[in-house]
Design a protein that fits this description.
Epimerase_deHydtase, aldehyde dehydrogenase (NAD+) activity, alpha/beta, about 325 residues, 13 strands, UDP-galactose 4-epimerase, domain 1, two-stranded parallel sheet
Length: about 325
Amino acid sequence: MSDAARSLHAVLGAGPAGTALAGELVRRGHAVRLVSRSGPDNAAEGVERRAADVSTPEGALAAVEGADVVHHCVNVGYHHQVEVMPRIQRAVLAAVESTGARLVVLDTLYPYGPTHGEVMTEDTPWRATSRKGRMRAELDERYLDAHRAGRARVVLGRAADFVGPGVLNSTLGGAVFPGALTGGEVLGLGDIDLPHSYTDIRDVATGLATLGELPVGDGRVWHLPTAPAVTTREIHTMIEERVGRPLQRVVLPEPRPFGPFDEAFMDEYAEMFYQHTEPQIVDSTAFARTFGVHPTPLAATLDATVDWYRGLLAGARG
């Protein structure tokens, strides 16, 4: 087994991205530690589980102890992000600066802000206007500054809205697939005739694992493998074909509570609603060109997602 395969990867955050990434890293032969505040209960076989609060210096050090590569996939509730995410960054950056581990950060599109339909590449200017977008941009500048200053080795991987097995809290997740399968209401946000990119959660895992294995990508932002954008209406049509019934669609032209998205969430999401009133198009060809990793076709993503939700609903009924 190679030295790379023997390396320890610490994955911070046991949500859909962290869990999928831990499984992908195990499949690649790595030793893997999955960390969450209360201790993960959904880790793949062969994954070390650890409880740690990475918003504190002591917790972050305990989380990354002995790791060669640290993957920061931690997220917090929408209404806590502006306050808590900078605190997590300070603790995690200090920890990897102390230990020498490489840091792979799962990032969002928020720093770009409104693009007025411009295709987003890694060269797109950061023009965030929202509180959360400006916060994310500031965090990313600090990550890259730490790399440029030689204090840490850092790489960032940006994803569009998640979709795929295990993804619930997404605009293409728990507010869509259960209703599609049962004849209930299905959410659409904003203008569903605009193209909108979604990143398969398995491609998030593949992309982050690749960045963790290949330091050639360090010191910059990458767009993780993301299938070409189509309109949300086209995606709904593809879902209809898979579930064998028309969708009972509810389109919200402005943010208000619906399904898993309560009032507190939607109040915070309002400043991000521009993502559904202009095209959101992510170009990930740089990743494919550099690393030879291509996105899962959207049809295959929807096949797997519908199958996963079928299983979830069957389990709930059982």
